[in-house]
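Dear V.,

Thank you for sending over the compound details. I've combined the ligand you provided, fe (ii) ion, with the protein sequence from our construct and run the structure prediction for the complex. I'm sharing the raw inputs here so there's no ambiguity about protonation or stereochemistry in the SMILES, which I know was a concern on your side last time.
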Amino acid sequence: ELFTSNAHLQTALYAERDIAGLLKSYVEKEENRLNRVRQLAEDYERHSNKALENIDKYLGNPINAFLLIKRFTLDWDRDVIPIISNNTWDAMFQEIEQVRSDLPTHEDLKGAASALMRLQDTYHLDTSTVAHGDLGGVVSPVLSVEECFELGRLSYNEGDFYHTMLWMEQALDEHSKSVKNRNINRGSERGERESDVFADSEDMDWTRIEVLDYLAFSYFKLGDLSQALELTNELLNIDPNHERAVNNKKYFEAMLQDETRKKRSSDENKKPGYQQNRDEYRNSEEFLTYEALCRGEDVMPVKNAHKLTCRYLTNNHPLLLLQPAKEETVHFDPWVVIYHDVMSDEEIKQIKHLATPRLNRATVQNAKTGALETANYRISKSAWLKGEEHPVVEKLNKRMEAITGLDMDTAEELQIANYGLGGHYEPHFDFARKEEKDAFKSLGTGNRIATFLNYMSDVEAGGATVFPYVGLKLFPKKGNAAFWYNLYRNGEGIYNTRHAACPVLVGTKWVANKWIHERGQEFRRPCSVNPDA
Ligand SMILES: O=C(O)CCC(=O)C(=O)O
Ligand SMILES: [Fe+2]
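Below is the predicted structure of the protein with fe (ii) ion bound, written out as structure tokens.
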């Protein structure tokens, strides 16, 4: 089971606490046992010392002889074996194994590393800045040489040589610095700890060799042969007999001399079809705009920005007369509004709990992975009574109905998403295109006419909702909601509503999404042949 969200990763924290408890009680049991083993040893020692003082006299007494024999038969089996045979470890190991399913796996590690790489790309994060504990201005742990190396190696295993290069360079830099520091310190320690220092520096050479090996190869893969050769030479300076490096050196030198072969090899290095399409999309204008918006850049002027307004909205609805909705228009075409303070903290707490009923332990039921690194939950009507909404959901439905004037009975069930590490949702339409005729057929309620997106958390950094075609960006604020129509009155899709959820850089993002459908809106939002009406 993969750890797809921060809410889910929480179980790993509980598991870690359990393991700490297990290990401590293990140590306590072992300490008791070892004390008894020590006592036993002392007992034997005392006894034998005494007996050995005068062996003949001791063994000459038949009672002594009898007791000696008893000691190593009856007493041994009954008292000694249980103490010296150690099954405490096995018992503890079994208990730890039971916690295993609550712990992340190597699959998760791969996912976490590639999420970090995505964040680095989207938010233009400098490798050394991240490694030194600055995540876009937010303080994070400093990464050691070994940790940078592992990030490089995980990228390497994914065939991502660009990020391999970045993180191995970082590992190499930090390694050089620590060698320098060590040499300075060594000057003052010379003499006393010579052998220690020697062992350590061998260790350090070994690290450097490994880093150089990966780094040279990723430069080669990236097409920078001279850099690959230079690093290989550096490696050979440390270890002239490194077999792969010796061979690579010959190979790189020959390639550098032969331009035609160099060309051919870059063809050989062509990525498989999927990876290439993926790379092409990541370089597309849409994707680059999406990423720029995520970083908070203004990619194009917002049309009629000076006319954007706020207003209190009652719709003459009893629910809103006492507490009007606070509507802020943030875009005209397409029309996008923010409603302020739609959900209270208490309601948010309850909805999160409904979505993730057994989050605190083991399996999260009905959690399925939708977009990457995101756990999606649907609050089904039977979450409460069969066929009925939970009161807190019902209340929210009524409020959304009062605000939008749209019928919520034909809407989809409330969809909750918890975005975790790098969790995001790439540009998409919420409505079904003409060519996707059957998309919502089974629902029998027509296309998704509108989206009501409730933000259930603040996000420390990242996690905006952005509209790349019109340059609009919305930053989540707990309790606020975004609302827009996906369809014109004539049922045609509004293509400029294409939008995306930016990767979460720091924090956790929770949203509750309500997709409202066409059916039921005939009198609430009458159709028109004029699409602009
Ligand atoms: O989470 C967001 O900001 C947008 C989510 C979204 O677009 C969707 O779930 O369809
Ligand atoms: Fe969406």
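A first observation: Confidence is low (pLDDT under 50) at residues 192-198, 360-372.

Warm regards,
I. M.
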